[in-house]
Design a protein that fits this description.
Fructose-1,6-Bisphosphatase, Chain A, domain 1; seven-stranded mixed beta sheet
């Protein structure tokens, strides 16, 4: 692994561990407010966002930053970090231990590295995706630095499929799996990457919800299907605050036809 990628991984791990330690002190102790788009935010979200931005500026000067709680306009820089400082705010405020800190690193608008940390579970996920970038990157997806892969099983009623609160329309007779609703977009899709679920759907994820997970799912062998417009590459000077990217993730591409008929309303 090159010195650059070693620096990237160490930065992501050190920064999310430090920020996550403080968030654990606030976990279940803070109140949330409604943002104009209807989503929730706490002072903990805002603090974490500032801390991560400052850390990026110190370690990666000149890199762009796109963040849910700050600059939502993609600056068009060659390299750009995408931050979700606290994914799963409702869970966080209610003392439910499913919430995460998410960092994605984009090269020319497309994610090539993703890191997601769940402090309350003690789990970290990371992965690399070279794609068509031309970069020399490491390979693979990992949970707590152990390689992970999607499931090779066929769907059955003994297997799990994750939905979000806005995608419950897929719950109809004939669906081949059991449903789960985890309340955090990143973990919803990461459970597919680690082989715990066969698939998952998110109806209204934003760029910061999916930038890191997009990499990890693909690196683990999963199939990512955008149900509307493709999220990447991002376009320079576009404000992504009001843009959602409905997404279906399944463990392998052969399963896409089995699940897409249930996604029509999304």
């Amino acid at each position: 692994m090159t010195e650059f990628w070693t620096t990237v991984i160490e930065f992501a791990q050190t920064t999310t561990t430090r920020v996550g330690g403080q968030l654990m002190q606030d976990f279940g102790q803070v109140q949330a407010l409604h943002k104009p788009d209807g989503s929730l935010v706490t002072q903990s979200d805002k603090w974490a966002d500032r801390e991560i931005q400052d850390a990026i500026a110190s370690t990666f000067p000149g890199y762009g930053i796109l963040t849910e709680e700050g600059n939502t306009v993609f600056p068009g820089t060659e390299w750009c970090w995408v931050i979700d400082p606290l994914d799963g705010t409702t869970n966080f405020t209610r003392g439910i231990p499913l919430w995460s800190i998410s960092l994605g690193l984009l090269y020319r608008g497309t994610p090539v590295f993703g890191y997601v940390y769940l402090p309350a579970l003690g789990q970290s996920f990371h992965g690399f995706w070279q794609g068509t970038s031309g970069l020399s990157t490491p390979t693979g997806a990992f949970c707590n630095h152990h390689p992970i892969h999607v499931s090779s099983d066929a769907p059955s009623h003994q297997h799990l499929f994750n939905v979000c609160a806005r995608s419950t329309s897929v719950i109809r007779p004939g669906f081949p799996c059991k449903f789960r609703m985890l309340g955090v977009a990143s973990y919803n899709l990461l459970t597919v990457a680690v082989g715990a679920a066969i698939g998952g759907v998110e109806a209204t994820p934003k760029v910061w919800d999916i930038a890191a997970v997009w990499v990890i799912v693909r690196a683990a062998g999963g199939s990512w299907l955008s149900l509307a417009s493709e999220p990447f590459p991002l376009s320079p000077q576009v404000d992504y605050n009001g843009r959602s990217f409905p997404t279906l993730v399944v463990s392998r591409k052969e399963l896409v036809p089995e699940f897409t008929p249930f996604m029509q309303e999304l």
